[in-house]
């Protein structure tokens, strides 16, 4: 017998669940703002008998209850409307609502007969209980407490606003604004007494870091920077919370949803997995969450550092622009006392992130083209210019692209013009290494450990910080990889104590550019959006940068943070750069150190009369050999001097530069130009090292036969140069 089919009874109300009744929080705030605006306008019209019967009766009731305070009802509703319209975060604090209601109740008590029935009752009660003076004192105190609760500001801030804005002696708005860096200037003025910035000179062999600016340095205000009114929109937050929870539940992953953090670029949805759920199960479902949310790319942070929760970062529908001005005016930036504070941007919760360059102490920046590297570097430069006078910090800017740093030319902070040539960049890096060694000698002589202790000891010649910024490392590594890598590694290893910092950027994050030595010595890194996970691992040693959105979206890794921190970088436009650089140029001229771009490492063995440095102690031996043999080749020098091909070729190059041998003509040996008499008369070195023994070939010419020369040269080599 066939089984009877069961029919389920359809619920008539099930159609209600098919509709999405949730409202975007920002849309809800705008609706509340419109309602408050309408109520405020109707209340204002009712004061002039223009609001109709309902409005008039309502305002009459308010005046009878609260007296003269009833006239501020329209202002309260309009203020609430403005608050809901402009507030970035949802809702008002409970204490603010309580303070506003209490202020509206206690304020009429100060007006006695004009305070309405509530005001009269409160004033009579307190006056009869504490007397006239004590009663008024308590009523005034209660109103002040309610005002502080309602505004959420300290009493000092309220009084300062009243006197600055409402006082009779008004100042222009630009003069009334206090500079963020006023405290820095006060410290400099107190230390120097007369307010003059001291001239900085570093003792050296003609390579003095000078500054022609002797007047009082004025720090710029944030008024010359641009602002942005864009707001981030996360879309339907409640719907996304339900989608995340349901999608994970479909894969047997039970979670409890937590807070929602709305950032400039992404919104972070946090949740706590139930017991028994592995984190790799959640991270493996990132693509499924991306499909369910119809958002790409999303990033799963498991776990969130410092929290027992997992975060899912979903791109916002509308991204907000983070400007340099808002970070410079933030509390986090003003609390930093270091002159090397760098404003990076805002994290996924919208909190400003600032770091100290002196603690890092070097920075590596990498990312694809157009991801925001150059804008990040410009924001770092402007932040350093905001905090330091030309005598506190010097800059060396390297711009192989020729267009990124051209606007900074001729500002007083530059040690040399913006460098665009690779060979001059190598010279500048070698100069920085030499400057580092000089500074260590000065610290050693003065028994100081670092630049801070040295400058605090009150020397006659203070050391400025030096920041070397390279916009594109890949171009330099292609042409002079060995020299650039050696100089960068030496600076990164040793230069922190003497105040020399390095900021290097590249758009080609490959192992040929960001070598293992460079990565090992520069631990603070910024990874922008890249094309593949391989590039991300090259920068940060882990995946993540391939899921960034670009336009300043970054992952910052340093010793301060256990894991890479996602940050929306600061945006600065060309107008901001022009305003700051023009302000700097208006205060003084630049004073360049010309030896930087033309620097050559001093040779240990002196130089020849032609001016070519001799960097090989076998130069004299090689010169005698080629002249006596009347031919010059690398193989000849290899046999006679027992050296390798590279060293023999280098000796031939030096001999050619000094006019001893001619140019190479194919595979034939070079022609010898110099004579034996010239060799005897010509000194081979101008070095002053008196402890060096004279070379035997310079005192007594070797015999012409080849076999004794080999033995003789071999003996000399073993005696004077056992390392060869």
From TrEMBL:
Q: Where is this region: Disordered?
A: 678-724
Compartment(s) of residence:
Cell membrane
Record's compositionally biased regions (Polar residues):
683-700, 712-724
Stored InterPro entries: AAA+_ATPase, FtsK/SpoIIIE/SftA, FtsK_4TM, FtsK_alpha, FtsK_dom, Ftsk_gamma, P-loop_NTPase, WH-like_DNA-bd_sf
- Mode of membrane association: Multi-pass membrane protein
Task: Read off the SMART domains from this record.
Answer: AAA, Ftsk_gamma
GO molecular function annotation: ATP binding; DNA binding
Q: What's the subunit arrangement here?
A: Homohexamer. Forms a ring that surrounds DNA.
PANTHER family assigned: DNA TRANSLOCASE FTSK, SPORULATION PROTEIN RELATED
Family to which this protein belongs: Belongs to the FtsK/SpoIIIE/SftA family.
What protein is this chain from?
A: FtsK domain-containing protein
Native source organism of the sequence: Candidatus Berkelbacteria bacterium CG_4_10_14_0_2_um_filter_35_9_33_12
Give the taxonomic lineage as stored in the record.
Bacteria, Candidatus Berkelbacteria
């Amino acid at each position: 017998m066939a089984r009877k089919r069961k029919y389920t009874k359809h619920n008539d109300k099930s159609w209600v669940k098919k509709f999405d009744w949730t409202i975007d929080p920002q849309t809800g705030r705008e609706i509340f703002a419109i309602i408050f605006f309408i109520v405020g306008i109707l209340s204002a019209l009712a004061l002039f008998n223009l609001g109709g019967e309902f409005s008039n009766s309502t305002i009459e009731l308010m005046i009878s209850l609260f007296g003269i305070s009833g006239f501020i009802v329209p202002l309260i509703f309009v203020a609430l409307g403005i608050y809901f319209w402009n507030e970035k975060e949802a809702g008002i604090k409970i204490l603010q609502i309580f303070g506003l209601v209490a202020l509206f109740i206690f304020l009429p008590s100060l007006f006695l007969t004009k305070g309405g029935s509530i005001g009269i009752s409160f004033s009579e009660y307190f006056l009869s209980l504490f007397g006239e003076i004590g009663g008024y004192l308590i009523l005034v105190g209660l109103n002040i407490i309610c005002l502080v609760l309602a505004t959420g500001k300290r009493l000092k801030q309220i009084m300062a606003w009243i006197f600055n804005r409402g006082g009779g002696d008004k100042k222009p708005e630009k003069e009334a604004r206090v500079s963020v860096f006023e405290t820095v200037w006060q410290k400099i003025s107190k230390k120097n007494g007369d307010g003059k910035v001291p001239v900085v000179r570093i003792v050296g062999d003609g390579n003095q870091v000078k500054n022609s600016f002797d007047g009082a340095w004025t720090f710029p205000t944030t008024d010359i920077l641009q602002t942005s009114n864009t707001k981030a929109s996360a879309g339907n937050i409640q719907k996304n919370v339900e989608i995340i929870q349901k999608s994970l539940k479909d894969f047997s992953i039970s979670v409890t949803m937590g807070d929602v953090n709305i950032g400039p670029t992404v919104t972070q949805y946090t949740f706590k997995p139930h017991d028994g759920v592995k984190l790799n199960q959640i991270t493996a479902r990132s693509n499924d969450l991306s499909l369910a949310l119809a958002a790409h790319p999303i990033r799963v942070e498991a776990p969130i550092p410092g929290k027992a929760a997992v975060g899912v970062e979903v791109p916002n529908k509308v991204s907000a622009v983070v400007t340099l001005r808002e970070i410079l005016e933030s509390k986090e930036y003003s609390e930093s006392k270091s002159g090397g504070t760098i404003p990076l941007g805002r994290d996924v919760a919208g909190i400003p992130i600032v770091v100290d360059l002196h603690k890092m102490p070097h920075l590596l920046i990498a990312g694809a083209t157009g991801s925001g590297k150059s804008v990040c570097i410009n924001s770092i430069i402007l932040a350093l210019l905001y905090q330091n006078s030309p005598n506190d910090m010097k800059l060396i800017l390297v711009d192989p692209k020729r267009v990124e740093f051209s606007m900074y030319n001729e500002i007083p902070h530059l040690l040399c013009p913006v460098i665009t040539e690779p060979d001059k960049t190598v010279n500048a890096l070698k100069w920085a290494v030499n400057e580092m060694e000089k500074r260590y000698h000065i610290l050693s002589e003065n028994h100081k450990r670092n630049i801070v202790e040295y400058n605090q000891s009150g020397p006659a010649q203070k050391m400025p910080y030096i920041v070397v910024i390279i916009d594109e490392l890949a171009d330099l590594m292609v042409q002079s990889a060995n020299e650039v890598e050696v100089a960068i590694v030496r600076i990164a290893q040793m230069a922190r104590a003497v105040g020399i910092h390095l900021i290097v950027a590249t758009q080609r994050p490959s192992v040929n550019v960001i070598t293992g030595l460079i990565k090992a010595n520069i631990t603070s890194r910024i990874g922008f959006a890249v094309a593949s996970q391989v590039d991300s691992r090259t920068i940060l040693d882990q995946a993540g940068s391939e899921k960034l959105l670009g336009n300043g979206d970054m992952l910052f890794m340093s010793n301060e943070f256990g894991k890479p921190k996602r940050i929306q970088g600061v945006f600065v436009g060309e107008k901001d750069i022009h305003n700051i650089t023009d302000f700097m140029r208006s205060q003084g001229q630049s004073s360049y150190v010309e030896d930087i771009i033309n620097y050559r490492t001093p040779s240990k063995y002196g130089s020849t009369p032609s001016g070519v440095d001799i960097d090989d102690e076998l130069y004299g031996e090689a010169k005698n050999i080629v002249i006596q043999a009347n031919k010059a080749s690398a193989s000849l020098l290899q046999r006679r001097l027992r050296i390798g091909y590279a060293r023999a070729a280098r000796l031939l190059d030096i001999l050619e530069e000094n006019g001893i041998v001619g140019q190479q003509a194919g595979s034939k040996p070079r022609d010898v130009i110099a004579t034996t008499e010239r060799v005897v008369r010509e000194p081979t070195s101008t070095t002053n090292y008196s402890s060096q023994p004279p070379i035997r070939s310079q005192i007594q010419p070797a015999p012409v036969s080849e076999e004794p020369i080999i033995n003789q040269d071999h003996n000399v080599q073993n005696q004077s140069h056992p390392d060869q």
